Amino acid sequence: MLKTKVAESLNSQINAELYSSCLYLSMESYFHSVSLSGFATWMRVQVQEELLHAMKLYDFVGSRGGRVVLEAIAKPDADWESPLAAFAHVLRHEEGITARINNLMDIAASEQDHATKIFLQWFVSEQVEEEAGVSEILSKLRLIRSDSSGLFMLDAELGKRVFVPPAP
Ligand code: OFO
Predict the structure, then answer these.
(1) Distance from residue 122's CA to the centre of ligand 1 (Å)
(2) Closest Cα to atom 3, ligand 1: which residue?
(3) Domain count, the chain
(4) pLDDT in tens, 54-113
(5) Dist. CA 101 → ligand 1 center (Å)
(6) Which of 4, 21, 72, 103 could form a disulfide with 50 if both were Cys (CB 3.0 to 4.6 A apart)?
(7) From CA 13, how far away is CA 68, in angstroms rounded?
C-alpha cells in the first residue's frame, strides 16, 4: 500500500505529465501554423510519450492500491517567437520535470518505499534521454539561426520521428 506522501507526489506527477502532453500539443499546432510540419510531427510523438508517462504512473498507483485523483491541467502557452524559443521552452520544461522526478525519488527514499524507487528509475533514465534529445535540437537551431535552408533540413529530419510504444 502506498503511503500518503508518496501517493500524493505520484498524483501530482500524473498532472505534470498530462500538462506536458498539453504543452507539446500546443506546440504542435504552433509549428503547423508556421508551416514546419516536421517539427509538428516531432511534437505529436512527444505528446504520445507524455501520455504514456502519465499512464505508467496511473497504472503504478493503481497496482499499489492507491487512488488516482486528477486535478485541473494548467493552460499551456500558445505562441512562441521562433522555433528556437519553443525548443528553449521545451528544455526548461524538461529540466523542471527532471527536478520533480528527482524530488519524487527523494520522497520514496525517505519513506523507504523501495518499489516506488525501482519504478521511478525508468523515469530517471527517460529524463536523461529527453534532455539530451532536446539539447541536440536546440544546438542545431542555434547553429541554423536565420538560415532557412538549414531550418527546412532540420524540419525534414524531425519529421521522421515515429512513436514507438514500449514492449508490454
Ligand atoms: Fe514526461 O518527460 Fe517530458 O515532460
Answers:
(1) 12
(2) 94
(3) 1
(4) 999 999 999 999 999 999 999 999 999 999 999 999 999 999 999 999 999 999 999 999
(5) 10
(6) 21
(7) 11
